[in-house]
Specification:
Helix content: 55-70%
Order of helices and strands: HHHHHHEEE
Strand content: under 5%
Largest sheet: 3 strands, antiparallel
Low-confidence stretches: 31-35
Radius of gyration: 28 Å
Structural class: mainly alpha
Strand order of the largest sheet: 2-1-3
Shape: elongated
Distance between the termini: 100 Å
């Protein structure tokens, strides 16, 4: 009989403890997940990936137009730039995943329908505009966060844009002068750097890939 008050007291203490725990759990601030330290870098990589995706699809379309017009040299250049843009898109997408993000290419894009001559002019203007925007800020943000891997990927992408602009301007001058063209292109499979088949390095200066691994863009 003496155990009953003790047992009742024990139940009372346990009940009070449970009520206190329930009150604390209901009123305390919810835990927030720590912010992703690479959030800014991932956002820059996403912009770069989508931009390269759009470029690749646009230049593939321009290559088909050039094929229809029997503009062989123009088709080669557009196809080479599209291939290079896809390599750089993949590099940026891989970096996004590596930093804990997710990448989804644009579901819809708009391609221009015009003649090859107009497509070349439009491409030069497009590359010049994006060249003015520059990718230095994105590279600097990656370096500020200590992410040299992302910075390198963004540098490769920006360097590709500069090369595309140079090739387009040279190609337009070639067409205006009535010359035949470059004869084809070689693309570094690692960083997407483009060369003409008559002027290329033994090793890619951007990523040190052996020139024997370069991909040749041939006429269809």
């Amino acid at each position: 009989m003496k155990l009953r008050p003790l047992f009742t007291l024990l139940l009372f203490v346990v009940s009070i403890g449970i009520l206190v725990w329930i009150y604390y759990a209901a009123t305390r601030a919810p835990k927030t997940s720590p912010p992703n330290m690479w959030q800014e870098v991932v956002a820059d990589l996403e912009v770069c990936s989508r931009y390269k995706f759009i470029k690749a699809n646009q230049y593939d379309h321009f290559a088909l137009v050039a094929d229809e017009e029997m503009a062989v040299a123009s088709a080669q250049l557009f196809r080479a730039m599209a291939y290079a843009a896809r390599i750089q898109e993949k590099n940026c997408a891989d970096a996004i995943v590596r930093l804990g993000g997710r990448y989804a290419p644009p579901s819809k894009i708009v391609v221009f329908h015009s003649t090859t001559a107009d497509n070349i002019d439009r491409s030069v203007a497009y590359e010049q505009y994006n060249r003015q925007l520059g990718g230095d800020k994105a590279v600097r943000r990656a370096l500020k966060h200590g992410n040299r891997y992302a910075a390198r990927t963004l540098v490769w992408a920006a360097a590709g844009d500069r090369v595309h602009l140079q090739l387009l301007e040279r190609h337009r001058q070639t067409i205006d002068s009535g010359a035949e063209g470059s004869g084809g292109y070689l693309i570094c499979p690692t960083c997407g750097n483009i060369y003409t088949t008559v002027d290329y390095d033994t090793f890619c200066p951007f990523c040190l890939t052996d020139g024997k691994q370069f991909i040749r863009i041939e006429t269809r």
